[in-house]
Amino acid sequence: TSLDLKAKAVKTKSGKEYGFEKLILATGSKPVVPRIEGLDKEGVFFVYKEADYLDRLLKAIDSSERIVIVGGGFIGVEFADEIVKLGKDVTIVEMLPHCLMLAFDEEFCVMAEEKLKSLGVKVLTNSTVKRVKGDSKATGVELADGREIPADLVLVAIGARPNTDLAREAGLKIGDYGGIVVDSYMRTSHPDVFAVGDCAEKCSFFTGKPTPIMLASIASAEARIAGANLYELHLVREIMGTIGIFSTAVRDLVLGVAGLTEAAAKREGFDVIVGRAETIDKHPGALPGASKLIVKLMFSRQGVLLGGEVAGGLSAGEIVNIIGVAVENRMTAAQLATMQIGTHPLLTAAPTVYPITVAALNALQKL
pTM for the complete prediction? Predict the structure, then answer.
């Protein structure tokens, strides 16, 4: 509950005090609470990472029939997919033009929305919740345009912010996005205190600017860096900036992104060259369980890979990791077009149409 940097001690909720030589803060994140009237009513839930709270949420979902999810990001979309499996009436309300729009280019967002709608989820985009209706218990939501949606349960999932209350009160330096400022070895403004995970400020791999990306995969990498360098800099493999490698699944549709999307690259001022490929993830494509696979790669005018997006079956989740490695190593379109690969009829696309190489070849034609 408190951190004394001068005394190098922490105090717990029970009042016990522990001294430390080195300290790693891994306090995670908290849900963003928007300014919506009525969020204190019974039947309104957030996505807190607390077992007891989540258990109450699951029981409330089970006893509800109509559920409104505020926010169409990863959390909102994945909750919608799971809840509609229970036969519930599910509506997503998203203020942006598309769900998942902070992570993907528009064409991939549309794929996710079409999949959700085919499963029975109602998707309302360009829509903002004004207030939660009801007396003491939520009975629905009212949108900014006056529309009303009845609901037995309202789930607010519009994102998360770093949980840095302890660090802030102790006097550690806090960054532009509210995370604890760290260097490449996860050291904070105090030489004996490290921070990892959602509570630590992230910087973009591409621009060096702060970025609000929060991922378990990043937290794991940061923890390894901090653990290896607590007392001495043993691991000269520092975090060089956050690439941002995401994947999500809406039933059998897997979407993934690594690095910059086309829209994000253009916002940062890059002259973007796009390469595309569409194939089947097994060969021949008539094999059972085969899925269409779409890969989109973004390159700078100099041919360096900036990012990629993938849509398809289960293999898409690993293909996006391959793209992430290529981004981290600043591979070029020429290198990707000629890279050595292993293929198998039951596991991959045919070697003649392997999507990463085909997308790179497509980009090379435009360079």
Answer: 0.92
Instruction: Residue 299: give its domain's CATH number.
Output: 3.30.390.30
HSE on the CB side for 319, CA within 13 Å?
31
Q: Percentage helix, strand, coil, to 5, in the chain? A: 25, 30, 45
Is residue 142 helix, strand or coil? strand
Q: What is the pLDDT along the chain (367 residues), one digit of tens a residue?
A: 999 999 999 999 999 999 999 999 999 999 999 999 999 999 999 999 999 999 999 999 999 999 999 999 999 999 999 999 999 999 999 999 999 999 999 999 999 999 999 999 999 999 999 999 999 999 999 999 999 999 999 999 999 999 999 999 999 999 999 999 999 899 999 999 999 999 999 999 999 999 999 999 999 999 999 998 898 877 666 567 899 999 999 999 999 999 999 999 999 999 999 999 999 999 999 999 999 999 999 999 999 999 999 999 999 999 999 999 999 999 999 999 999 999 999 999 999 999 999 999 999 999 9
- Token look-up 């207030």 returns 131
Q: Is the peptide bond before 150 cis (omega within 30 degrees of 0)?
A: no
Q: How many domains does the chain have?
A: 2
Is 126 a domain residue? yes
| Cα 27 from Cα 227, distance rounded (Å) | 16
Backbone phi and psi for residue 355, each to the nearest 5 degrees, phi listed first:
-65, -35
Query: What is the residue whose two structure tokens read 């494509």?
Result: 285
- Interatomic CA distance for residues 174 and 180, integer angstroms: 5
Whether 145 contacts 132, CB under 8 Å: no
Q: Are residues 156 and 250 in the same domain?
A: no
**Residue 270 burial (CB < 10 Å; 0-12/13-18/19+)?**
buried
Tokens 């901090």 locate to: 226
Q: Which residue segment(s) compose the domain that 107 sits in?
A: 31-160
Q: Give the end of a domain, one of 96, 125, 160.
A: 160
Instruction: State the sign of the Cα–Cα–Cα–Cα dihedral 248, 252, 253, 259.
Output: positive
Residue type, 305: L
CATH number at residue 101: 3.50.50.60
d(CA 364, CA 292): 23
